[in-house]
Here is the input.
Amino acid sequence: MIEPKIVKTVPKNKIKQLPSSFQALSEIEKKEEWGKEYFIGQKLAQKFDLYRAVTAFKRAEILIPGFLKSRLHEIQYFIVLSYFLGEKYD
Here is the structure.
């Protein structure tokens, strides 16, 4: 009988090859406090410094204005993704 082997982790080099599904931050967004934190989180995540990336994303989540729902959801997605890639499921 063949037993399937399920791999939960994705190789870092494979992730780095994937294009982003989200629009890049505009220059105006990069000047906002939440935008700076989000940008830092993205750069840390690219380096697989996931603990610090989550911290930056959470700071961005706190600072972002409520009317920017799509960006808020984007930030929350990256928080979940960072936890997943760091294999922190609890």
Q: What stands out?
A: Residues 69-85 form the longest helix (17 residues). The mean pLDDT is 89. The two ends are 33 Å apart (CA to CA).
